[in-house]
Structure formats: structure tokens, C-alpha cells
TrEMBL record:
The lineage of its organism: Eukaryota, Metazoa, Chordata, Craniata, Vertebrata. Keywords: Adaptive immunity, Immunity, Immunoglobulin. The keyword Nucleotide-binding does not apply. It comes from Takifugu rubripes. PANTHER family: IMMUNOGLOBULIN HEAVY CHAIN. InterPro entries: Ig-like_dom, Ig-like_dom_sf, Ig-like_fold, Ig_sub, Ig_V-set, IgHV. It holds the Pfam family V-set. Residues 19-118 form the Ig-like domain. This is Immunoglobulin heavy variable 6-1. One of its GO terms (biological process) is adaptive immune response.
Amino acid sequence: TELISVWCFVVRTVGVKCEQLTQPASVTVQPGQRLTITCQVSYFLSSYWTHWIRQPAPGKGLEWIAYISSGGGSTSYSESVKGRFLISRDDNRAQLNLQMNSLKTEDSAVYYCARESQ
């Protein structure tokens, strides 16, 4: 039986002031299943574009997978996840979500949420 491992961490892009973003440690699911991961932030999501990126394996490059604009009205996805993943946010809870549907073994990765600096 194949398993998909998702490790979640946090980064913030270029800037001086650090922000706190909190994510769960790791989750393992079966291929074809659905999983939602959440990034808890300490800033106003409505003030920054925020992204999800992933790293398939140690030493491998980062892959950008999705962003949501500061206004929330604009989203974009990489071809590898388009139609399967959905980025959303809850401004009241200060949470960024990534709903991952129809997971594949190639989705196994360390997932990072990252915000752009002003």
C-alpha cells in the first residue's frame, strides 16, 4: 500500500520583520484521498499575498503551487495541482487553507506557507 506523507513548515519571503505562522507537523494519507492543511498566521491575511510551496524531497528544489491575493479575489495554481487543490483563507481566524483532493504519490512533500513582504 502506497502512502502520501505531508510535512508542513513555515517560511516568510524577503523582509525584515518576522511573522509567526504555525502549521501541524506531519500527516500521512492514502492516494486518492483528500486532505486539508492549515497555516495559522499572526498577520492580517487581507494585507498580503500568501502562497503555498512544497519541497518533494530533501535537497530537491521548491515548487510553487498556489497563491491567494491580499484581497482574496485572485488565486492561481501550478499545472501540477490545478483542478485538484483549492487555496482559501479565513480572515477572522487568521488561517490559510490548502484543500488537496485526489492526492497522488507525487504530492508527497514538505509543504510551506509563505507570505510576501510589503
